[in-house]
Amino acid sequence: MLGDIVMSIDTLMREAKEQKKSLENHYVHLLCHGVLHLLGFDHIDDDEANEMEFFEIEILRRLKIANPYAGIIFFSTILPILIKQFSFKICLIKPTD
C-alpha cells in the first residue's frame, strides 16, 4: 500500500465555495494532488512545484476539469479508476469541535 489520503469534508466544502469551484472538481483536484504525493512528488521548491502542478493540470485536463491554478467530472466516476490503478485508501473526516 502506498499510503493514506485524508481530507476534511468541511474544508473541502469551504474551499470549493471560496474558490467558486464545484465540490466534485475540488475533491478530484485534491485527490490527484494527494496521489501524486503518494507517488513521491512534492512542492518544496519551485521546480518540484512546477512539475507537480504540470501533472495535476494534465490529469485534470484529461478528466475535463479546468486548470485549478488558472483562476467537470464527478468523483464517483473517477474514484474507482484511481483505486484500481493505485493501492491506497481514502478517508473523509469531519472534525469534532
Can you give a write-up of this model?
The chain is 56% helix and 12% strand. It has helices at 9-18, 23-38, 46-62, 75-85, and strands at 3-8, 88-93. Strands 1-2 form a two-stranded parallel ribbon. Mean pLDDT is 80; it is low at 72-76.
Rg: 13 Å
SSE succession: EHHHHE
Pick out the low-confidence regions: 72-76
Could you state the oligomeric state of the chains shown?
Answer: single chain
For the secondary structure, the number of strands is 2
Mean pLDDT over the residues: 80
Walk across the major sheet and give the strand order: 1-2
Envelope shape? globular
What fraction of residues sit in β-strands? 5-15%
Number of DSSP helical runs = 4
- Class by helix and strand content? alpha+beta
Kindly summarize this structure in a few lines.
The protein is of the alpha+beta class.
